[in-house]
């Protein structure tokens, strides 16, 4: 029989085998070093057997060619960079994933000697950047879904049909873009249907439950004994229906509703009198408005409930303090301002100051309304002629001589307004003709003003209201200015006029002035004249008024500088 090894010998043999295997493993590890496994490829790029640095450099060079990606969306094409899509190839992580680098892990050695196939590249994705890019593609090439909606237009509720949109599925699109980047190939993205959250069925339900009842009748807000009636077209701009969990729910703009309600009331709790204005060349009554102080929340807090009540129960009592207008809408209608009863036009020579002062004064008079019995005051309406009030210096007559003062030229407005009142048959309360006669004015029938002593006043002594309208066409170096004043009312008098011959005629003289503020002056003949205003009705003369006007003679003034030697005496 053979001899068996003793325990010690067997141990030595086993130890020798272990050392041999260890040596072989170390040799295999040393030979593999840190190189990538044989046969390894990344996106078709061979990196097997390369050091990590070499593999990283090769991959980075290859993926640099993938930076621009051709994208096709619904047949439309464009190019985007990897950076615009938030895609970044991580070469170092990919090399590590492929097995690059030293390791005693037996699996790593197995992969190196046995070889591996394709290794997926590591691509980092910036989700926010990618979403921004996909949203841009969707906006440019897709079509947003249109939600079903309700619109309130002109007091009518209308349905806006829902519409399916076209968009990009995020997960599918992300995968397609990443795959195209990895492969260095174009990306074809399919548009898919995007369903609206608010369907036509929800829109129809909203119309029946709220929108149509809201537009079915006016609502009345009762502030004490003052009523404000809001028609559907009045309050519709404050209403809307908004999407909430796939349904349309009523919404009220409290701010807009307050504006609508306040438009029917006075300003800041103050009443606004009714009046008459020209609208498109036609007199229209502007209703009076009560001055109401109230808490807007008392209206907005209950309005959505109010507008869906039946027609007989659409009144809301609102706690308020009410100030009533002195002139009511009924009063303004009784004035009977409906037609032009007189108009008068004058012309003025070109000067810059007249082109400022005359339009300014006319703008302050335009739109004045005189109720029966009211008296018009030009000074009271226009105010003091100051720079702050929009006036500049111009020529005026003072003590029979021409000088300068703020508001020069306003007498042109006074004369035109006086004649419009004259032919409307209004009562002459106060007017003062110029002390000198200017042939651009109707002889004996003109007026001047000066603050505060000389005014133009007339009274509306007819049974009807009077609205004053003014118009001006500014002068140019080649054309005169044109001033027109008209009176609107109901025709009460037919006015005709006549004049006497001039009498008490005084010829002007001549003189030379050496005054430092001398203004040259053309001569004016002085005279007296009578103007007759005939009041007629139904073809019969009722009465005649007589006005006597006196004009002073004005010497011809020549300005001459004072001789310095004679002035020394």
TrEMBL record:
Pfam families: PG_binding_4, VanW
InterPro entries associated with the record: Glycopeptide_resist_protein (IPR052913), Vancomycin_resist_VanW (IPR007391), YoaR-like_PG-bd (IPR022029)
Superkingdom classification of source: Bacteria
Positions of the YoaR-like putative peptidoglycan binding domain: 80-188
Name of this protein: Vanomycin resistance protein VanB
């Amino acid at each position: 029989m053979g001899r068996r090894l003793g325990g010690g010998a067997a141990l030595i043999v086993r130890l020798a085998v272990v050392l041999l295997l260890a040596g072989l493993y170390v040799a295999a590890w040393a030979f593999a070093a840190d190189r990538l496994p044989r046969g390894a490829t990344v996106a078709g790029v061979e990196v097997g057997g390369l050091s990590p640095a070499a593999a990283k450099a090769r991959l980075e060079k290859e993926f640099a060619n993938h930076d621009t990606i051709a994208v096709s969306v619904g047949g439309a094409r464009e190019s985007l960079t990897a950076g615009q899509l938030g895609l970044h190839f991580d070469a170092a992580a990919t090399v590590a994933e492929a097995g690059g680098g030293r390791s005693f892990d037996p699996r790593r050695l197995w992969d190196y000697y046995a070889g591996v196939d394709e290794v997926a590249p590591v691509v980092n994705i910036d989700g926010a950047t990618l979403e921004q890019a996909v949203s841009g593609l969707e906006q440019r090439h897709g079509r947003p879904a249109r939600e079903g909606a309700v619109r309130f237009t002109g007091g009518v509720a209308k349905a806006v049909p829902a519409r399916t949109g076209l968009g990009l599925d995020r997960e599918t699109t992300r995968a397609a873009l990443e795959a195209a980047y990895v492969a260095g190939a174009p990306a074809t993205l399919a548009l898919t249907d995007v369903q609206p959250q608010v369907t036509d069925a929800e829109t129809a339900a909203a119309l029946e439950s709220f929108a149509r009842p809201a537009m079915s009748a006016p609502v009345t807000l009762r502030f004490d004994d003052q009523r404000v009636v809001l028609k559907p077209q009045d309050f519709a701009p404050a209403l809307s229906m908004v999407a909430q969990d796939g349904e349309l729910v009523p919404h009220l703009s409290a701010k807009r509703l307050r504006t609508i309600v306040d438009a029917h009331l006075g300003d800041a709790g103050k009443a606004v009198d009714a009046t008459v204005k020209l609208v498109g060349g036609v007199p229209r009554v502007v209703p009076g408005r009560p001055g109401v102080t109230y808490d807007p929340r008392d209206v907005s807090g209950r309005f959505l409930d109010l507008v869906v009540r039946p027609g007989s129960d659409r009144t809301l009592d609102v706690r308020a303090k009410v100030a009533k207008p002195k002139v009511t809408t009924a009063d303004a209608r009784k004035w009977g301002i409906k037609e032009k009863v007189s108009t008068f036009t004058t012309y003025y020579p070109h000067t810059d100051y007249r082109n400022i002062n005359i339009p300014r004064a006319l703008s302050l008079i335009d739109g004045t309304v005189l109720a029966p019995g009211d008296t018009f005051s030009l000074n009271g309406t226009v105010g003091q002629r100051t720079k702050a009030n929009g006036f500049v210096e111009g020529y005026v007559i003072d003590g029979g001589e021409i000088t300068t003062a703020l508001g020069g030229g306003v007498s042109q407005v006074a004369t035109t307004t006086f004649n419009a009142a004259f032919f409307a048959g209004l009562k002459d309360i106060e007017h003062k003709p110029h002390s000198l006669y200017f042939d651009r004015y109707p002889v004996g029938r003109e007026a001047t003003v000066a603050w505060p002593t000389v005014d133009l006043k007339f009274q509306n002594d007819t049974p009807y209201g009077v609205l004053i309208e003014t118009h001006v066409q500014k002068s140019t170096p080649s054309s005169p200015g044109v001033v027109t004043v008209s009176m609107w009312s109901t025709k009460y008098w037919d006015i005709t006029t006549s004049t006497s011959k001039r009498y008490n005629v005084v010829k002007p003289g001549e003189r030379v002035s050496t005054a430092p503020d001398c203004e040259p002056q053309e001569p004016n003949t002085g005279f007296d004249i009578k103007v007759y205003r005939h009041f007629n009705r139904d073809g019969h003369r009722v009465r005649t008024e007589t006005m006597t006007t006196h004009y002073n003679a004005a010497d011809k003034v020549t300005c001459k500088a004072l001789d310095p030697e004679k002035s020394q005496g």
